[in-house]
């Protein structure tokens, strides 16, 4: 599974509608509105790079209100959930 973080600048007057339209795109796992240099952050999960190459320019960038995107591909996850799963032996200690 390929995970990408897409930083999105959006038209200020349509951020909620833009965010929902992006969230409705297949392959987009989550969309967050945020403060700072970008307005929205989308987490995209797809099986192949070709899907990502199509999804960003042909779908996300064409959503009304999207002004610009900056895509970052994740190499490895360091979340607590992933770390716990890596060390889970499947034995219940309870």
Order of helices and strands: EHEEHEH
Distance between the termini: 33 Å
Tell me the Rg in angstroms.
Answer: 16 Å
CATH third-tier fold name: Alpha-Beta Plaits
Number of domains: 1
CATH second-level architecture = 2-Layer Sandwich
Hey, roughly how much beta strand do the residues contain? 25-35%
Give the fraction of residues assigned to helices. 25-40%
Mean pLDDT across all amino acids: 90
Distinct helical segment count: 3
The main sheet comes to: 4 strands, antiparallel
Total strand segments = 4
Give the CATH class. Answer: Alpha Beta
Class by helix and strand content? Answer: alpha+beta
Strand line-up in the sheet with most strands: 2-3-1-4
Low-confidence stretches: none
Q: Please name the fourth-level CATH homologous superfamily.
A: Lrp/AsnC effector binding domain/regulation of amino acid metabolism (RAM) domain
Shape: globular
